[in-house]
Amino acid sequence: MILLMVWASFLLSFIDRLLWGSVAVPARHSLNLPVAALGSFDTAFYIGYVVSNALCGFATDRLGGRIILTAVLFLLGLFTFLFSFTNAIIVGLIFQILMGLAAGADYAACVKLVLSWFPLRDRGKAMGLFMTASSLGVTITNAIVPSLLKTFRWGTVYQIIGFVTIVAGIICFLLLHDGPILAQNESKQTPNLAQLLRNRDLIFLALAGFGALWGTWGYAVWANALMVTHYHVSLVQAGFIVALFGIGAIISKPLIGWLSDWLGGARKVPIIIILASFVVMLLIFGSLSSVTAFEIAAPFLGITAFVYSPLMNTMVPEVAGRTAISSSAGITNAFWQLGSVIVPLVVGVVFQSTHSFYAAFVALAAGPLLGALCMLFVRERKVF
Predict the structure, then answer these.
(1) How far apart are CA 233 and CA 215, in angstroms?
(2) 30/218 Cα distance (integer angstroms)
(3) Domains in the chain, ordered, with CATH?
């Protein structure tokens, strides 16, 4: 029940943040927005999101996951609802920043709750199931929102989703509780930022996650454009190939959690193997040229591109300690997100200067290669 509520909360948070991508076109016409302004709304959201990730983890360690997650859902739902009344670019940007600030605290709060309810022997399975919410969020948003837009205007869609999110926050407040594993008094201590920044294992995990997300979201952003531009694959075919990439992620995340628990909670070695495999699959994909070959390779690439995340997300608080679960998760996740922000620019420069499909994938593969090398220096510790 607890895992289901945390999973559903994270799923709703992802749907809220992904809404704009589905309603941007009709919203652009009603707001008379230039095409260039559409992307600025996403940028505004992630400015708030990264800042909130870095800061709100400390509040979660102090106040507990239940209170923070309740506040996240209520505020995110409220700002999502209010965004529907946007009548100018500046108003929309302000609301998107506020939405990002609210949503950015969800990850740390959810991780805190999962780890507070599930002991070491079950932690990998729980985290693997929890992390499917992010993958399913993409699928559900793109399946539901277009249908809603056939009946309602874009603002009404925001109001519906915002209202549902607020209701979810109320339900969490009434039914959700912090778990017994972290109920000791030390779990309420304020974590020491300087101590976190001196934690060499946390630093190398942050660098490893930066490289991993570099490859994952770099592919997600550029795969369609690279296949269409270089090999003249149709948009429909390219979309299907990337969808196969996503299916691999949904299937693999719970499975790696089960495997990790079966191996006694092993994280480091599986992560290194996965990231090394990710490098190989990116280079293989970059050497392909036919639609059929892309379709065969995409699910396997998707497995390597996402399956590390439950293990890495679990390992961060394990090396940081019980008093810094949310703060360590928030800081590392904020740093990880920088990889997904920078990589689109780098791959664009590489492809434009070389006109080489393979060179673009070499640039993508550099990220997980860095991640695998950094993981070699991480000491696997489980302090609770």
Answers:
(1) 22
(2) 31
(3) 2-177 (1.20.1250.20), 193-375 (1.20.1250.20)
- d(CA 53, CA 330) in angstroms, rounded, equals 4
Q: What is the pLDDT of residues 130-149, one digit of tens each?
A: 888 877 777 787 678 878 88
Q: Are 208 and 271 in contact (CB under 8 A)?
A: yes
pLDDT score for 77: 96
**Angle, CA of 252, 338 and 65, to the nearest 5°:** 65
Burial class (CB in 10 A: 0-12, 13-18, 19+), 180: exposed
Q: Are 114 and 3 in contact (CB under 8 A)?
A: yes
Ranges of the chain whose pLDDT falls below 70: 35-39, 142, 181-193, 322-324, 381-384
Tell me the two tokens of residue 158. Answer: 């925001």
CA nearest to 158, candidates 37, 21, 47 = 21
**Model's pTM, two decimal places?**
0.72
Which of 211, 340, 379 shows the shortest CA–CA distance to 279? 211
Question: Under a CB-based contact definition with an 8 Å cutoff, are residues 41 and 99 in contact?
Answer: no
Judged on CB neighbours under 10 Å (0-12, 13-18, 19+), 284 is middle
Question: For residues 155 and 370, what is the distance between their CA atoms, to the nearest angstrom?
Answer: 43
Count helices and strands (H / E) in the chain. Answer: 15, 0
